Every structure is written in C-alpha cells, then in structure tokens.
Amino acid sequence: MSAQTSSNTSVSGSFTREAFEAHLAQVSHLPAWWLDRKRAAYERFASLPMPVRSDEFWRFSNLSRLTLDGFAPAAPVDFKDIVHESVGVSGAGHLVLANGRLVASEPLKAEITARGVVFDTIQNAFAKHGDLVREHLLAQPARLGSEKFAALHEAFLEDGAFIYVPKGVEVELPVAVFHYAVGAGAAVFPHTLVIAGENSKITVSDFFRSAAPKPGEGGSSRGPETRDPGPQFACGGNDLYAGHGSQVEYIAMQDWSRDTLSFQFNATVARRDARVLSLNLHSGGRQSRHESFSQLQAPGAHSEMLALTIAHGDQEFDQRTLQIHQAPNTSSNLLYKNALLETSRTIFSGLIIVDPDAQKTDAYQSNRNLILSDDAEANSLPGLEIQANDVRCTHGATSSRIPAEQEFYLRSRGINPALAKELIVFGFFEEIIGKITNSELHDQLAAIIRRKFKEQ
Amino acid sequence: MIPPNNPEALIANVDETATNPVEGIDQEVGNFQYDVKYDFDAGSGLTADTVNYISQVKKEPEWIREFRQKALKVFESKPLPTHWASNDLENIDFNKIRYYLSQGQKSKRSWDDVPDDIKKTFERLGIPEQERKFLAGVEAQFDSEAAYSNIKEAVSKQGVIFMSSTEALMEHPEIFRKWFGKVIPTGDNKFSALNSAVFSGGSFIYIPPGVKVSHPLQAYFRINAENFGQFERTLIIADEGAEVTYMEGCTAPKFSTATLHSAVVELVAMKGAKIQYITVQNWSANVFNLVTKRGLAHEDATIKWIDCNIGSRLTMKYPGVVLKGERARGEVLSIALANDGQHQDTGAKMVHAANNTTSNIIAKSISVGQGRSTYRGLVHIPKHLTGCKSNTECDALLINTNSRTDTYPAITVKGDRNSVQHEASVSKISEEMIFYMQQRGLSEAEAMSLAVNGFVNDLVREFPMEYSVELKRLIDLEMEGSVG
Amino acid sequence: MQSLEIKDLNISIGDKPIVNGFNLTVNRGEVHAVMGPNGTGKSTLAKAIAGHPDYTITSGDVLVDGASILPMEPDERARAGVFLAFQYPSEIPGVSIANFIRAALQSRLPEGEELEATKYYKNLYAKMDALKIDRKFTSRSVNDGFSGGEKKRCEILQMAMLEPTYAIMDETDSGLDIDAMKVVAEGVNALRGPKLGILLITHYQRLLDYIVPDYVHVMWDGRIVKSGDKSLALELEAKGYDWVKKEFATANA
C-alpha cells in the first residue's frame, strides 16, 4: 500500500495517551473487565493508521478534511446550560446526556417498569445488569473501515443509554435518548444499547444535537446562530439486539452542528423471526460517516435499513452499509435516499453478503440520489457478494435531478423555486418518512429537514 | 474463438491429458500443441535485459526502447491490486514467465509462406477457412508475433491499414506514435505497465475518413508455449465517419503451469466514427487473462465493446470508453460464464467527459459449479456536464448451490443535469421452469441449456450471426453436466 | 390397449397422503372430466402423472397404452404421449415460443434427424391462426408477461403442435373470462378425435358447457366417489360441493 499522506493529522490527534488516562480515572469505578476492554481498545486505536485513499472502504471519501486534532473530551455541563427545544415523546420516558453524562431524565411509566423493562444509563446498567451489558455492548466488530474510530469510541465511551425489554413485553411509546455535545471543540462518544428479549417490542429514538453554552443574560433565542458552537467531534455507536420474534424500531436524528466531524456505528443483530427497522436522518455535521452493519443470524430474521440525508453547503455524508445473511429464509431491505444541495457530497457504499448456506435469502438494496445543484456530487457503490443460488437479491442506484416537467408544474401553480425544491424533497423522502408512525417523532424529523432549507 | 471447420475431427485428435472434468469440448478445441522451433527467445524472467532483447530483435527506434524501460520501472513499482482484486494474482510467478518467443518479426501475407509447424495449428483451428468465408482481413498471432496478416485487396484499396503492431510501428510511425499509449497510459495499472514494457504483436488498424468496412477484421491469438506470456498491443483508429468491426478470438493448450495473457487495446473513434470490438475469450483454464481495454470516442462517435468471457482461470477485464466529444456513445455488452476453478472478474468503465454523452452497460454472468463471476463497474460524470445519461444493468444467474457472484459498481455523478441508473439482480433457474420444459419433452440438460440461453438471449442478439451461433454452442457445452 | 390407465394410485407430498386409491381409464377418443372441491387432490394427480419431483407416488400405477410410465423421467413421459396443460404455466424469459416448441418437437425426433423449418413454421402459423393468436407472438418469450388468457392459449397451442395421445388439462378455465374461455374451448374441441384422450380437471361446471365431456367423475378426498355422464356435472353445479362432502364424508369415516 502506498504511503500517501491522505490526512493532515497525527495518528492519535487530540486523543493522546494522557487524555485517555485522564478519562480512565473518571470512570475507574466501572467494572474491571470493561476497563480492560477500554485499555485494549485504546491500544488498537493508537496503533491503527489513519485511513488512506487506496483503502476500498474509504473510496471517494474526502480524507484531507479528516483530522483528530483540536478536540478535547468534553467537560461536564448542566442541563440548564443547554439550549434546546422539545424533548422526546410526551409521556414515553427519556434520558438527556450532555457531554457523555446524564443531565436530565423522565423515567418510564411505573406499569412498564413493573414488567421488567429497564431504561437507564449504561453506567447504572454495569452495576445492575452487568451480564447483559457485557454480552451485548460493542459485541460486534467494526467491519466497514472504521476499526480505528470504533476503537476510539470504545476507549472514550463514558456513558450512554441502556434499554432492555424482557420476554413478551411490548412497549408502545417510543423512548427517547438525547445526546448533546456542548461547547467548542467538545468530543463526545454517545452510545445506545438496545436489547429486546423474545417476542418483545420496543421503539427507541436517538437525537444527536450540538449546543453552545447558554448566553449569560438569558437570551434564549432559538435557531442555528445560538446553537452552533463551532467544531466538535462526535464518535457514537449503537447496538441493536433483537431476540427471537421481537420487533425493534430505532430512529436516529443526527443534527450535530455544521462544523462537527461525526462518526456513527450501528450494529444490528436479528435472531429468529425478529424484525428490526432502523431509520437514520442525517442532517448535521461537516463530515459525517455512518456505518451500519446488520446480521441476519437465524431463519425468519428481517432487517429494514432506511436512511435520509439532506446535504447542503459543503457537507459530506459518507454511508457504508453491510447486510449479512447468515441463515436461510432471512430478508433485508435497504433504502438510502440522499438529497444534495449546493456543493455537498454523498457517498453510499453498500454490500449484501449471502453466506453459502443462506438459501431463500431475499435481500434488497437501493440508493437514490436527488441532485439539486450543479455543484453537488453523489457517489454510489452498491455491492453484492452472493454465495448461495436460491436467493432473490437485487440492488439499484440512481442519481437524477428534479424532472423539469415536475418543477415547471409546481412553478405554474405559483410556487417559488425554493419552496418547490422543498416540496419535491419532502416528496422524495416521503416513502421513508411515512414509516414513522409516531406523529411527534414524525414532526421532529420533518422540522430538521425544513430547517435545512432555511439555512441555505 | 473461431468455430472449427470440423469439430468432430478435431476432437478425435485432442491430447488425452485433460483432467479438469468440467471443461466442455469447446476448450478442448484449442487444447493441443505442436512442437515449434523458436528462433528468438528472451528466456524466463523479466529484467531490463529482457526488455532490451525484445527491443533489439524488433529493431525498434530508441524512443520505444526508452518507453519500454520506463514502463518496466512502473511495473516493478506498482503493487498487485490485491486490496480489491483476487489474491489469486499472487500465484503468478513473474520470474518463470517467458516474455518473448518467435520465429521472426515479419508476418506472411499468404498462408503458403507461413512455416508448416505454425500453419498447421491455425488450419486445425479453422482460421484460413473463416477468412475465405466472411472476413475482410485476418491476423494470426502465434506466441509473440503475428505469423500471418492479410487484408482483402478491395479493402486495402480504400486505404485501410491492417497489420501487426510490430510492423506498423516501423511502417506507419506517424499515425502510430500519435495515438500509442494515449488512451491507456503506461501507469494506468500494473498490467498495462507490464504490457508497455514487453508488448509484442497485436493489431494496428487505420480506417480512413468515411470508409465503412463492411465485413469484420479479425485477429486470432494463439499461445503455444508453456510458461509463456503473451502481451499483444492493439491500436485501432477509425478516422472521421469511418466504421469498422473487429473481432478477436484466442485459445491456448492447457498446461499445469500458469500462462499469462496481458494485452493492451486502445481504440480511437474520431468524429462520427463507429468501432465495434468483439471478443470471445476462450483461454484454457490455466491462463491468467489480465487485459486493459479502453476507447476514446470523439464527437458523435460510437464505441461498442462486446465482450464474452468463457475461458481462463482468472480474467480481469473492464473495457472502457472515454466519451470525449459531444453526443459520443459508449456501450459495453458483456457475457461471462464461470465454471469450476474459474473467476471471471469483468465489467465496464464509462467516463463521461462531454455534454450529451450516453453510456450503456449490460452485463450478464452465469456461475456454474464453484465458478465465481464478479462485475465491477465505473460510471463517472464530472462537474458541469449536462444532458449525460448512463444506464447499467447487471444480471447474474447462479446454477448450483455453491456458485458465487459479486457485483461492485462505482457511480459518481456531479451536477443536476444528468441522469444515471444502475440495476442489478441475482437469480437462479427455478425447478418449476425446468419441470415445465421437461413436460414438453426436453431432457433436464436441454431444459437447463435453453433456460441459460434464454437468460443471455437479448444480448446474444446483438452479436454478428457467426458469433451468436458459436456462443450458443459454447454455452450448451459448458452447461453439460452442470445439472443433477 | 389404447388408453391411459390410472390404477389404485396413492400420492403424497412429503409424508402427507393427498391422493388415495384413484382409479380411472381414459381411452383415446374420450373426454373425461374430473370435478371436485379445492384441496381434494386434482392438481396433485395431474402433476404426479407428469412426474413432478415434489410428489411421491407411494403405490399404484399409471399405464400409457399398456406400459407403465412411472419409471420414466418427466420428459420421457411427455415423449411417451402425455401432455399436461398447466394451471400456472411457467415463464421462460428469453426463450421464444417458436424456439421452444421447435426444441420440444426436435426432442421427439430420432438422433441425427433435423426438423424441417419451413414445414414447421407453416404448421405453427396455421395452428396459431386457428387459436386466434397473433403471429407476432412467436418471437415473444414463453409466457413471459402474458395475460392469463394468453398463457392458456399458449398451452393449447403447444398441445396442438406436440400432438399428444393423452392430455391432462389442469384447471384450464381458471383465470379466463368468458371470451377467452370460448377461444380455448374451441381450440380443445378442434383437437378432439379418435387419436386423443382428454382428462379435464376443473372446479367449475362452466367449462363443460363448451367442452362437453363423455364422462364426469367427482373427486373427493383423493379418489373418485361418483361417476356419470355430463348430467352429473349439472347436478353438482345445482347442489354444490357441500352435497358431495355430506354424502361422502360419512362413507369415508
């Protein structure tokens, strides 16, 4: 491999050994096995090189902007310091973590807790549900190119959300987890761990938001100006484990500040007859990399992988996905839709792997790009690796503009060009947005998209 | 791949050394070897001396020798592309390959003048008969050099040049040098660099403005020697408004050691010109076939690659078109059939570089037994182009439970005035379909062959008649024994 | 013996018995209709006779002109003269009707003998005209994207071209509107004659208004429980299958 200097950062950047030791000291009360894992993770992080262009997993990525310098593990903040709007779905329970620490929460209703459902921080879960955490937390290896950053996540992970639903229990309302990065240069490592027992049902939503410390004299005017704290670093992950016959829905809204460098890793495990739906909205960040990895481990397992990206300015969204069918009669369906404005770039790289014994697999993968500007760039790398013959696997990728007739039709009704764009983008996204059945989540997601058009 | 004049007779003569159970009679057609005495032999292994030797026996001008030496350095500096391609590449021992073998550098214009030991090979493959029947010209390359090269008088009278590259370099340096290495630079990839260092043979074609060659020109590439590497270099230039169809076929005897074939093919279609390049690749199953093919299409020009890969151990080949002029059109139609022990890693590249250009890729692959077929594609539409369209369809058919297929396209689109689509599917032949056909009286094997031919039918229709018949026959033969 | 004889046939799918002791003899020149409610084993019978691998014949025999066809592969059974008109004909992408029928006819010729192309096309076009099938259809892929009616007409066309001695027609009327059914029935009637025995499998009586059977059999629980002439079909239509169920459920117990 040629030794190109593809990024202008040192191997560890701001995440030096001293910084790591300082972090370890903060979490020294956690179990020894976890601290050992963190130490091993730090060693992996420090020894792995930064990605280079010739790496297939980083094809088309803009590596020149990728730097680990200039960040610091974020300092504790108070809930009242954060400017934010709505919190979660009314009555459903939520956790608010800011700079990796719990700052506010609304517990689950007593009748739900009584049935054994746990909604708590990971730190608390270490003590109360140590075995479950140990079995599932970051149990799936990163396989899509970000081994280094996944190791960084594990090394510096301070706290996150833990959701456990026991056998046969169905939780109707979506629980919400808010992850705030507060202050310039803040580095955060959010994590959400969802474990759904046999025949259980749960919906979890993750919100990723940036905040500047609240201005002194109560000027809480909302909007991007006050919210935007400048460059931040977010390196988060989630584990979704869907047990036999369970249903897990996971909805994430990534709305970091415009200067954030963001990594997000998803690992989904679907057991027999389990159904997992994950839906990711990507809106914030300067450069955002999202890796999503679904394993269909037993017959009847199904994974629905959906993503919406609304890119503007010089944002880059880099999405890498893997659907592995490890057992017969499993199915997966991936639909990633990107709308590109201004000089934004998107990269979609997806792979379906069908293992040799996974006959009767039904897998679909689709990437649709709507390019709304002459300076935007969409890259698609849809891939298939099929080693069983009795399968139905298809993939498709399209990149297109707004059909001229469609635009004209809207204009002829008196709709101005900007609004026409907005309407068309919403139309383009509708087949995914429509999957969100909870109206509060639906509205929050739509609001993020709408704000993009105001920022333009 | 040329249809033999009398397959039964040829099969009777086949060496009985073949052990690979899955090869059909098709591959056996080329599986024979006569003893040939070589007057020129660069020996095994590749050094600066090898390159000098080749340049010297060819009496090349200094600029070519320098070009070759530079290329050798590039080849040596580039790693094998195993970070994305098959690790099987590591099994090529470049030190064991023989890089140049010939009886002389000048091809004959008449079969009567071709030395007997070489001529009988081509007669057995049916080349002279094909030439009489439907070709405008033929070149027959034996190991490193063309043994025979001729063009019908009526065609040469129109100003068409068709000769081996070795000779064209001497006889038409003004046209040759202008385009040589311009479409595919030496450093494009490790194997284009290798070819640039040791190239020998291949075709040179020039079609003058407005000339439409009605019958195909054909080249036949024969590898005869063991541990050999064939590195032909083909350059086709169709001047303004000219049209030509070029077909190439190839065979080699089956050896237990690896044989290397690494060609570079450059096409230049000037304004309004049309080039159709047809390959039916049927190397024996010990051949590493690592070929770089690219065309440059100027304004209103069309370049169409029809690429069929049936033989070889590992083929890596992604014919491309650079759409340089407005309204240029590029097309790749490809069929790959991977049987046990074979990996067909093929695809297409379309680089749009002007407004209103269109590209179309249709790739179909069939994996039989433990065969593996891979599609790799690249579609690139850079900034500020308008009205570009690109369409890709990839369909894979898996015959047996352990067959394998991969699809890896890469698509980049900038700007909001172009449209691109890519669709791929994987399927198998359903048991219900086979039963239905059996109920009409067809045997299971016949039903399977019919279904496979149906799968590729819409592509085969695009081929010239002689080739579609041959291809259908090859598929039938390859499918034999794949059921049950 | 110019007949298709089904003798005490038992068929199962996996471990589940579907057809139990089915007996019927269809002589050439005769049209037999087998009627029965859904799930009584009618389609199983048709597919098993044709040799479908999903069905196991556990006992009994099927004889064509006196010789058992059970040891034969599906294609050998077809070449022995048995034609199955499928309820759901398979689609074969890329293979044109003309080539398909040609290949099927070619497979019936002795080794080394070639089908004569001009004669073949003349014959094909004549039969297509009779079935009101547009000649353009010959270049379309077999059943690929066909409507229900087109598929069934394509089945009858194949039957006409391959000239079987025994035809089993599985729910040929399903998916057909009245006009399409008339065309199909006309096609079948044109093929009726002393050289052909027909076994017509149907759920509804309406097809039998157009293809008038010589014999009607009622199938229930995997066997024939009542036989008669065409009036039996009318009786069945009038009384409904519940009548059969009531009458014979007890008999089986």
Characteristic key phrases:
heterotrimer; B: 484 residues; twelve-stranded mixed beta sheet; 24 strands; 34% strand; disordered N terminus; C: 253 residues; alpha/beta; six-stranded mixed beta sheet
What structural class do helix, strand and pairing data of chain A support? alpha/beta
Q: Regarding quaternary structure, how should these chains be classified?
A: heterotrimer
Low-confidence stretches of chain C: none
Net shape of chain A = globular
Q: Give the proportion of residues in helices of chain A.
A: 10-25%
Q: How many separate helices of chain C?
A: 8
Q: Please compute the radius of gyration of chain A using only Cα atoms.
A: 21 Å
Structural class of chain C: alpha/beta
- Unreliable spans of chain A: 1-8, 217-226
Secondary-structure element order of chain C, N to C: EEEHEEHEEHHEHEHEEEHH
Through-space gap between termini of chain C? 36 Å
Helix content of chain C: 25-40%
Biggest sheet of chain C: strands side by side, in what order? 6-9-10-3-11-12
Main interface: chain pair and counts: A-B, 42 and 37 residues
Walk me through the structure.
The complex is a heterotrimer of chains A (456), B (484) and C (253). With 456 residues, chain A is an alpha/beta fold. Chain A has ten helices and 21 strands. Chain A is globular. By secondary structure, chain B is of the alpha/beta class. Chain C is 36% helix and 29% strand. Chain C has a six-stranded mixed β-sheet, sandwiched between helices. In chain C, strands 2-1-4-5 form a four-stranded antiparallel β-sheet, covered by helices on one side. In chain C, strands 7-8 form a two-stranded antiparallel sheet. Chains A and B meet through strand 20 and strand 21 of A and strand 23 and strand 24 of B.
Concise overview:
By secondary structure, chain B is α/β, with parallel strands linked by helices.
Topology:
The complex is a heterotrimer of chains A (456), B (484) and C (253).
Chain A: H1 17-26, H2 32-47, E1 72-73, E2 94-98, E3 101-106, H3 110-114, E4 118-121, H4 122-128, H5 130-136, H6 147-156, E5 161-165, E6 175-182, E7 186-188, E8 191-196, E9 201-211, H7 224-227, E10 232-242, E11 247-255, E12 260-270, E13 275-282, E14 287-296, E15 302-311, E16 316-325, E17 331-340, E18 345-354, E19 362-371, E20 377-386, E21 392-400, H8 404-412, H9 417-433, H10 439-455
Parallel strand pairs in A: 1-7, 2-6, 5-8, 6-9, 7-10, 8-10, 9-11, 10-12, 11-13, 12-14, 13-15, 14-16, 15-17, 16-18, 17-19, 18-20, 19-21
Antiparallel strand pairs in A: 2-3, 4-5
Helix pairs in contact in A: 2-6, 4-5, 9-10
Chain B: H1 7-13, H2 25-29, E1 40-41, H3 48-57, H4 62-77, E2 101-102, H5 116-124, H6 127-134, E3 137-142, E4 145-151, H7 153-157, E5 161-164, H8 165-171, H9 173-179, H10 190-198, E6 203-207, E7 217-222, E8 229-230, E9 233-238, E10 243-251, E11 259-261, E12 264-269, E13 274-281, E14 287-297, E15 302-309, E16 314-317, E17 320-323, E18 329-338, E19 343-352, E20 358-367, E21 372-381, E22 389-398, E23 404-414, E24 419-428, H11 431-439, H12 444-460, H13 465-479
Helix pairs in contact in B: 3-4, 4-10, 11-12, 12-13
Chain C: E1 3-13, E2 16-27, E3 31-35, H1 42-50, E4 56-64, E5 67-68, H2 74-79, E6 82-85, E7 92-96, H3 97-106, H4 117-130, E8 141-142, H5 148-162, E9 166-170, H6 178-191, E10 197-202, E11 215-220, E12 223-228, H7 230-239, H8 241-252
Parallel strand pairs in C: 3-10, 3-11, 6-9, 9-10
Antiparallel strand pairs in C: 1-2, 1-4, 4-5, 7-8, 11-12
